[in-house]
Amino acid sequence: MGTDTISLETSAASFCDDYSKLRTEIAKAVVGHEEIVEGVLVCLFAGGHALLEGVPGLGKTLLIRTLSDALHLQFARIQFTPDLMPADITGTTVVVETDGARDFEFRKGPLFAQMVLADEINRATPKTQSALLEAMQEKTVTVGGETHELVKPFFVMATQNPIEQEGTYPLPEAQLDRFFFKLQVGYSGREELMEIIDRTTSGQVSDVNRVLDTEKILLYQQVVREVPISKSVQDYAVRIVLATHPDEQLATPQVKKYLRFGSSPRAAQTLVLGGKVKALLAGRTEVHTEDIASVSLPSLRHRCILNFEAEAEGVTCDDILLNLIETLPTTAQ
After folding, report:
1. Taking the mean position of all CA atoms in its chain, how far away is CA 89?
2. Cβ proximity of 88 and 227 under 8 Å
3. Tens digits of per-residue pLDDT, 71-124?
4. Which of 63, 66, 169, 307 is the most exposed place for a label (fewest CB within 10 A)?
5. Residues β-bridged to residue 75
6. What are the b/e assignments for 211-249, b being 16+ CB within 10 Å?
7. DSSP summary character for residue 305
8. pLDDT tens across 265-297, in order?
9. Does residue 118 sit in helix, strand or coil?
10. What is the pLDDT of residues 221-262, one digit of tens each?
């Protein structure tokens, strides 16, 4: 089953239908957080990975576990701690004895699941973080000189707590760049909290049905890449990225004043792929500038580095990026 035998319009309609079913199944277990759920799904169908920042207890683990059930994918959760070693997540080679003969056998670690929750990634040492990020980038794990392919689709959702920084190892900017989106998980509202209490204290059990399988997910990831984008819309994505560089002519006054470094070329790739998913969800088979703008915050907020003046004045990357999107023309001047 390939996109060469199915028109893009048909594939787009099928994608929207299955996406709607998937959201319905997730809503059975996860209350609210619509933007976060959509952001995670955009990452999945674009073939990227998501970094979620929020205090504990907001349902991040529940979200990815529910998603793995609805997608019928193998799920693994890794609790990152300072004493976690790379072999604890990648796997290790052990000596086994069979019929009196000794041999080496590779025992796979939790990274060999299809959906991996890396909980509190900033609590692990840089060495262990690097092992995870290498697997995210290369889709392979190398142990003892032997390379092992990870099963596709391979999706990582990492979490970090923005409040407790004691004893943590913040991800370097170059490693943050490996994440497709950075999503900020906020607190639930009054009605959502009431619904959460009703569901979790009354003995209700959420029966999440399977919606998609591996074959269809891989198909939709290919469909996303085949969505056309015009040169003018692609140029808009490029100009957004260039406008985050303080020394560029396109940079806004806020960028020049508050940013030390702007986004990498990988940010432009993220804007385009995220925009393609958004276009499909809107029922279109071509990308518009509003699709690019709608994914700009999660695409760029972790790829821009604030200077001391911004931190002293309490200015955030989101503040700067929102101003950039509002002021940057959608067409080249």
Report:
1. 19
2. no
3. 888 889 999 999 999 999 999 888 787 777 778 778 899 999 999 999 989 888
4. 307
5. 115
6. bbeeebbebbbebbeebebeeebbebbbbbbbbbbbeee
7. E
8. 999 999 999 999 999 999 999 999 999 999 999
9. strand
10. 999 999 999 999 999 999 999 999 999 999 999 999 999 999
- Collapsing DSSP to helix, strand or coil, 223 comes out as helix
- Of the pLDDT bands very low, low, confident and very high (cuts 50, 70, 90), residue 164 is low
Side chain identity at 47, as an amino acid letter? Answer: G
Phi, psi (degrees; rounded to nearest 5) at 53:
-115, 125
- Specify which residues 78 forms β-bridges with: 118
- Single pTM value for the model: 0.90
- What SS3 class is residue 333? coil
8-216, CATH topology level = Rossmann fold (3.40.50)
Under 8 Å CB-to-CB from 89, ≥6 apart: which residues?
78, 109, 110, 111, 128, 131, 132
CA distances from 185 to 32, 142, 270 (A): 11, 33, 20
Domain ranges of the chain: 8-216, 227-327
Statement: 227-327 belongs to CATH 2.40.37.20: no
> What element of type H or E holds 112?
none
